[in-house]
Write a structure and sequence with these properties.
Length: 247
Amino acid sequence: MKDSRNLFIILLLLVAGTLGYFLVEMRGKYKQEVAMHIKLEKALTDTVRYHKNERGELVAEKLTMQGDIDDLEGKVAGLNKEKQELISRVRESNKENEVIAAALFSARLTIDSLINSKADIINDSTIVFSDSSKYYQYNILVGNVRPFKNYPPFMRVNDFSIPTDYYVTFNWEKNKREFYPVSFNVSATNPFIKITGIESYAIPELQKQVVKPTGWKKVGNFFKERWKEILIGGAGFAIGVGVGGSL
């Protein structure tokens, strides 16, 4: 009788432990869903922020939209055209392979002033300005500098290029309470080019707790993946103990 009571207590503890674990998991999942909703709402209303990196480059940063693509499409009416364009592209790409993360950004080339007093004289009325540096290269011909009747002055751009590289990163914000929202950063190596707009998207599963879990999260994942084996094994152990005791 005593052994049966001990067996019942062991089984009860196993069931209670398993139930408690799932209650904690459900609570965590609910908190995570709330946090995802908060992250999405903040991303939808966020604006581009600028800062300089250690290289002195201007970095544009903006929070990333995270959510199911169907839910996002349900909000399309209230989204700007850039967000709508991004969601449309993600939807198209998902037909081939699932998009993990995507971004759409716009940039503007601005040259406040560019003076060149060194010109190659071709003839009495034609000159060519040209220059080349790390950030630009151009060759511009100006004709009819001394205009004749019915021959107005003109300018012809033979070559004009602004080379640049873009550096792009996705970062987790250091905000544990909001389950680490994701931000998208892009910088251009050419100072004449400024990023004016960013829209980015990432799947909801792209979370720090999933991609890079902490020690406790790893333990939780272990139990989550093997709870059936643990419960069955524990019950088997309890029965074995009970049978052994009765012998």
